[in-house]
Amino acid sequence: MLRIIKYAFVCTIAFAWIGGVAAQTKDPPMTSDQATAILDELRQIRQLLEKLTSNVAVKAKLRLDGEYSLGKKDAPLTMVEFVDYQCGYCRQFEATTFTEIRKKYIDTGKLRFISLNLPLNIHAEAMQAAEAVLCAGDQGEFWTMRKALFSNFENLSQNDIVGYAQRLHIDLSLFQSCLQDRKHKSEIQKHLQQAEALKVTGTPTFLVGKTTPEGVEGDIVVGSQPLSVFEDKLKNLGAPQ
After folding, report:
1. What is the per-residue pLDDT across 114-169, written as a single tens digit (0 to 9) for each?
2. C-alpha to C-alpha distance for 36 and 171, rounded to whole angstroms
3. 30 and 66 co-located in one domain
4. Separation of alpha carbons 34 and 45, rounded Å
5. How many domains does the chain have?
6. Nearest Cα to 149, choosing from 196, 87, 200?
7. Do 163 and 78 fall into the same domain?
8. Which of 155, 128, 132, 154 is closest to 144 using CA atoms?
9. Residue 46 lies in domain
10. Do 46 and 63 sit in the same domain of this protein?
11. What is the b/e burial string over 109-148, where b = at least 16 CB atoms within 10 angstroms of the residue's CB?
12. Could you tell me the CA-to-CA distances from 21 to 10, 26, 27, 46 in Å, in that order?
């Protein structure tokens, strides 16, 4: 019942916003300030949705095989991230919450962190960015390329990406050949299928749970949540404090 009430509340907000936009269509073309205000309202609605759903536990499990990871491979807990490198919310998580999680849990051996690709159709350059990270990974630069793309998430053209690779001293001939051949297309498709199986449709989304022989089993966490949300989840899973 509580979940239904929350859903109805959010729908009321959304319909009110849509009604406001409809009313504006009778007026002269909107200014850039009006467009910015509308985008801010959309962001607020998304944040509200994330807050309302963050306390609803959705159980899931995932098989992991040969994925790039940070932290001890035998850490008792695992966090899997589904990421789109053109996603501003993913960038926000990387720049804020992830830094603290890495310091407090990953680097101390309590948590294994794994990043999977979920390039969304609404982002024209997300697929090639995902392929670039994996091509960089072939040369041992997965995590450094990942950080470079997040730092420049609004500039992900192929020329931009090649420039980042050059600054990371990646072999450009091998890197560009990997991109051109779409060497890692099937790997990304696998990640997309895993996301679909878990009903993950947006980024960033996380699966946080106990490490199992096959991978991880735990709860889905949606959105760029604050550190406290993840700490509560990890504490409930038995993470040492």
Report:
1. 999 999 999 999 999 999 999 999 999 999 999 999 999 999 999 999 999 999 99
2. 41
3. no
4. 17
5. 2
6. 87
7. yes
8. 132
9. 2-53
10. no
11. ebbbbbbbbbbeeebebbbbbbbbbbbbbebebbbbbbeb
12. 17, 9, 10, 17
